[in-house]
Write a structure and sequence with these properties.
The protein is of the alpha/beta class. The chain contains 14 helices and eight strands. Helix 1 runs parallel beside helix 7, helix 7 (191-225) runs antiparallel to helix 8 (230-251) and helix 11 (295-307) packs antiparallel against helix 12 (316-328). The structure holds guanosine-5'-diphosphate and magnesium ion. Magnesium ion is lined by residues 31-32, 48, 67.
Length: 406
């Protein structure tokens, strides 16, 4: 029989390139037999000791199958394998959509007893991460009647599919291979959901990495703004911001030229956000400016204010996370308060630039993953920054704050 996979969901296949399936189950459940029968390669009798990487593939079938060591009855051994599987799934999760694990085939031998069945809690926990299809292997039709309803009763399991991977002939019956096409068909119908999730995972890990670069860039800008060489501060800040955007771009897989990067940095300057932020920082509610002396003071007072604000404020959580990152840098005290405020203002502007840029990169990357036309990065960034400016003005009630009397 000619097996087919993926052509009913061409968009999803384009996004993930191939569906990566991890086959799990007890030793002897029939994992290796299933894989070799599906992909048409000879069975090696060897027991699998580690996850087969690279996975097994067959030309023309956009599916890649990872064999795993069997889950033994011996608890210690079983825990070791479970740990190995969990680590592998997690390790792949932060990679590109095509490198993540997309689905699990959980093989259960039709002759299994309740006592030897892998624990349901573990399967449920895996199913929270990935779609799980239960495969009843060597399903001769004479299997114990409890098994299929039992598996169907586990709500986290997406589908239960009986399979006979290789002809089974006994004095009582002769069963030809069946079910492999149903297994592929069932998996195929999860592809849209799988692709969506894989893109989200990839995006999240890029955004998380980028946020680290944002904190780093802001801390450097803060230092630069406190250097005792006023003439050099502005060009240095511009350079640091441009480097930061270059690093974030690389995280998303792009190498933009310096000209575009400096144009992107300039976007933040055109919005007037620096003036607004300076005004906010100079007028923090309930703050006696004679009592605050250091960058640390300014940051912690700003943090108090942020915490009290509506969750609708864009970047509220990220800004709150950003502050300790800046504070860790802990510059020597002794700067006049106005210089502390100026430095924090520029650092926070840099933060807004980075956070807006990460959002812009997400939109850009999403379009690339989905095969849509790529948006103009500069226009996207401008649009995001402007939107947030409006929200910030509303959030901070700008206009109602009296100007700081110096
Ligand atoms: N006839 C037949 N034998 C099977 C089938 N699946 C597994 N087996 C046999 O069951 C034994 C264990 O299978 P194997 O694939 O090595 O299990 P694994 O430990 O899960 O990889 C082997 O002797 C296989 O030949 C099947 O669909 N039909
Ligand atoms: Mg095996």
């Amino acid at each position: 029989m000619v097996l087919s996979f993926g052509h009913r969901f061409p968009t999803a296949i384009k996004q993930i390139k191939r569906c990566n399936v991890l086959v799990i189950g007890s030793t002897g459940a029939g994992k290796s037999t299933l894989i070799s029968s599906m992909l048409n390669f000879p069975i090696s009798d060897s027991v699998t000791n580690s996850i087969s990487n690279p996975p097994y593939q067959k030309p023309g079938l956009p599916i890649a199958i990872y064999d795993t060591p069997g889950l033994e009855n011996n608890k210690k051994q079983q825990d070791r394998v479970k740990d190995q599987i969990a680590k592998f799934i997690k390790q792949q999760k932060y990679k590109e959509p095509e490198d993540q694990i997309h689905a699990i085939w959980y093989c259960v031998n039709s002759q299994v007893t309740r006592e030897t069945l892998i624990d349901r809690r573990w399967i449920s926990s895996i199913a929270k991460e990935l779609p799980v299809i239960a495969v009843i292997t060597r399903a001769s039709g004479v299997e114990k009647s409890w098994l299929e309803p039992f598996l169907r009763g586990i709500s986290e399991i997406k589908k239960v599919i009986p399979v006979m991977a290789v002809r089974e002939k006994t004095p009582h019956y002769d069963i030809k291979p069946y079910g492999l096409d149903s297994l592929l068909f069932g998996t195929e119908h999860l592809l849209e959901e799988i692709a969506k999730k894989a893109i989200l995972n990839a995006m999240k890990s890029k955004a998380d990495k980028s946020f680290g670069l944002c904190i780093d860039g802001c801390a450097k800008v803060l230092t630069a703004r406190l250097l005792p060489v006023p003439m050099m501060q502005t060009p240095l800040v511009a350079t640091l911001q441009s480097w930061m955007l270059a690093d974030i771009s690389k995280t998303f897989g792009y190498n933009f030229d310096g000209k575009l990067l400096s144009e992107l940095c300039a976007v933040i300057g055109t919005t007037g956000i620096e003036v607004e932020l300076a005004q906010i920082l100079n007028n923090l509610p309930g703050v006696n400016y004679d009592n605050i002396q250091t960058v640390h003071d300014v940051l912690s007072q700003f943090g108090v204010m942020l915490n009290g604000m509506t969750d609708a404020l864009p970047f509220k959580d990220q800004l709150i996370d950003l502050l300790p990152g800046l504070d860790n840098f802990n510059p020597v005290s002794g700067f006049p308060i106005f210089r502390c405020i100026a430095a924090v203002t520029t650092a926070l502007c840099t933060g807004f630039l980075a956070l807006a840029y990460i959002e812009a990169m997400k939109i850009y990357k999403q379009a690339e993953y989905e095969g849509e036309p790529l948006p103009d990065i500069k226009e996207t960034l401008k649009y995001l920054v402007q939107q947030w400016m409006e929200a910030i003005k509303i959030g901070f009630g700008i206009g109602s704050i009296p100007a700081f009397a110096n």
